[in-house]
Amino acid sequence: MDAVPPRARVYVACVALLAVPCLLPLPATHAPWWATGLLAALCTACEHGVRRGFGGTFYPVLLAGAFLLPPSAAALVPLPAALLSPVEHPPVVPRRVWRAAQPALAVWCAAQVHGTLGGRDAVVGRDFPYALLPAGAAVLAFCLVLTALDGGLRAAAGLVPPRRAWRGLLTRTLAPVAVHGLAGLMMAVLWRSPYGPVAALLVLLPMCVSWWVFAQYHRERAAHQATIRALVQAVDIKDGYTRGHSERVGQASVLIARELGMDDDRVEVLRFAGILHDVGKLGVPTRLLRKDGPLTPEERRIIELHPEYGHEMVRGISFLGEARAAILHHHERLDGSGYPYGLAGDRIPECARIVAVADAFDAMTSTRTYSRARPVEAAVAELERCAGTQFDPRMVGALVRALHRCGWHPAVTADEPSHGGGPAQRAPSTGAPR
User: Which residue intervals define the domain HD-GYP in the entry (predicted)?
Assistant: First the structure.
C-alpha cells in the first residue's frame, strides 16, 4: 500500500464517509462520556503497546465499548488510537483514515446488534448465560463488517482478483475475534460490577501475557527475515547481473500465487522462495559469475549446481517450508530437459513451477548491460509460446491474468559489465538467469 491505487483511495474515502454518521449521537441518546473517554484512552494505550510489540489490532477494549456504550459512543472509542498510533509505512493519511473508519463501523454495528438483543441490560444485571447470546451476535457482526471491508480494500487495491478478495477472511478472523469478544464481555461485566472499571482492567493481564509470547514469535520471524535479506544482499553483491532480480521474482511469485487462490501463508512462502531462488550462487566461484565470454561445458556444470547449493544453505530454516523445494527445482522444465534432476511434469513441485515462470518473466523484462528489456507483451508472448514444454501453462496463465489486473514495472537491475556471454548463455528461449 506504499503507492495506493486511485480506486483504493476512493474506497477508503467512501468507507470514511459511511462512518461519519455513526459517530453522531441520536437526540435521545445520553452517552456516558467519561466511560467513552476512559475506554478510548485505554484503547489508545493498548494499541500503541501492541503495535510496538509485534503489530496488530487491539479488540477487547473495542468490544467492551460495544457491550457498554450506545453505538455512536462506542464508534468513538477507536478514533484516538487511529490518530495517535504511529504509521510505519506511507502514505500516512489514507492509512490513518482507514484505521479509524473500519473499526468505527465495525464497533457501531456490533453495538447496534448487542443493544437490539437486550445485551446491555443483560450485562448490567449480569444475566448469564443469556448475556452470551447478544454478545456472540455482536462479535459475529463485528467480524462480518471487518472482513467485508477488508475484502473490499483488497479488491480495490488490486491485491487479489475480486472473486477471491473475501475468500477465507471470515474463517481466519472469527476465532481470534471471538476470544477477544469473550475478554471484552468479561471487561464489561466487571465494569458494571460493584468493583468498577479497575476490576475490568484485570481481564487484560492474561491477554498481555499471551501477546508477549506472540511478540517473541514475531521477533524470531523478523530475525529470520533479516537473515534472508542479508543472504539476498550477498548474492546481489557477488553477482551484479541479479541485482534487484530476486526481490522482483518474489513479487511476481506472489502475483501468481494470489491469482491461483492460495492462502496467505502459502503466498508468503512463495515470496520467500522467489527472493531466495538464486541464493546458491554464493557457492559458485565469482570468476564464473562475472566471466566475459562463453562458458565451457565444465563451467556450465558448476553454475548449474547453484540450486543444490541454495537448497543446502536454507535446509535448516524451518519456516521456509516448501520454499526449499522451489529453490532446488526452479530450473527444472516441464519436458524434463531442465536441471538439476531432469524432473518433468507434475513431478516438479508446484512452488518451483511458479518461481520458474516468475524468474523467466523478470529476466526478460529487466534491462541488462548486454540487452535491453523486452516489453511486457513480448515477454508474455514468449512465456505462452514455451508453456507446456518449459513452463506450466497454468502458472503462465495465472501470471498473465495478474498482469492484466496489476501491471508490471521493470527496472534496471545491473550496473556492472556483462559476465555471461549474452543471451546464448542463458535459457535458450526466455533469457532467464543461469
Answer: 220-415
CB 404 within 8 A of CB 274: no
Band the pLDDT of 214: cuts 50, 70, 90.
Answer: low
What predicted TM-score, i.e. pTM, was given to this entire model?
0.60
CB–CB of 151/161 below 8 Å? no
Length of the chain measured in residues: 434
Q: Which residues are bridge partners to 387 per DSSP? A: 391
CA distance 398 to 392: 10
Q: Please say whether the dihedral angle defined by the alpha carbons of residues 143, 145, 150 and 152, taken in this order, is positive or negative.
A: positive
The C-alpha cell that represents 220 in the structure block: 524470531
Structure confidence by residue, pLDDT tens digits, 152-177? 998 898 877 787 888 888 888 888 88
The secondary structure of residue 374, as a DSSP letter, is P
For residues 90 and 76, give the distance between their C-alpha atoms in angstroms, rounded to a whole number.
25
Fold of 218-425: Hypothetical protein af1432 (1.10.3210)
∠ at Cα 218 (212, 219), nearest 5°? 90
Cα 210 from chain centroid (whole Å): 23
Alpha carbons 418 and 121: distance in angstroms, whole number: 76
What does residue 158 show for φ and ψ, rounded to 5 degrees? 75, 20
Q: Are 148 and 166 in contact (CB under 8 A)?
A: yes
The angle formed by the CA atoms of residues 262, 264 and 268, to the nearest 5 degrees, is: 100
Domain boundaries, the chain: 6-202, 218-425
CA–CA separation, 250 and 269 (whole Å) = 10
Query: Letter for the amino acid at 371?
Result: S
Are 237 and 364 within 8 A, CB to CB? no
Give yes or no for residue 346 having a pLDDT over 80: yes
How many DSSP H helices and E strands does the chain contain? 20, 0
Residue 79 in contact with residue 100, Cβ under 8 Å?
Answer: yes
Angle at 268 between CA 364 and CA 171, to 5 degrees: 135
